[in-house]
Prior knowledge:
Elements: E1 9-17, H1 18-33, H2 40-54, E2 75-83, H3 84-97, H4 101-121, H5 134-142, E3 151-163, E4 166-177, H6 183-192
Antiparallel strand pairs: 1-2, 3-4
Helix pairs in contact: 1-4, 2-3, 2-4, 4-5
Amino acid sequence: MKPIHSQIHKKTSISLPRNSHRKMSAARRVFARNGLLYSEQEIYRRLFKIFLKHWRGGGVKTNGLRRYNASGKGYEIHSLYINQVLYAALWQRALHSGESISRMLDVAIRVYLPRLLESLLSVSSRRPEPGRNIKYWSGRYARRHNTYPDFFINYSCHTHNNASGHLQYTQEMQIISKAGLSIMEIWNLMLTAA
Length: 194
């Protein structure tokens, strides 16, 4: 098995409905008006992390991936460039639930993009920027039932037995909150986690 690393990125592609991509473009313009210049890839990364944090699937493993990009629904192919740790955690989730990574991102855009906007735009920066409406975004974010501190996602896979026709392995994804971590712990996780 090849080792995975948070500092190495995977280049692949996703298919999104045109409406979802339009929402992404609109969110980037809102960020830019408020002085935050995020690439699509950075927003994808943050949305994937929020999606994984909120997933609560408790059923048995699916028998295969469900069809997502059916013809006639106006899908577009876009590039995806994310680190290997996050990609491995997404694949683990895809294998368990039967949802493709494209479908996960589509749901995250529709459901979690407003939360991401509110959480990032409600934080004041060291340099006050003109046109930034922190009070408005803070108020919207404060009205949410659940707000979560920033976090890391860590993934590991261990092969226990691979001999004589018997394969046994475990995959584990951990969500580690940044709250309460020391500076050294955060530094170490920045080098190993997503």
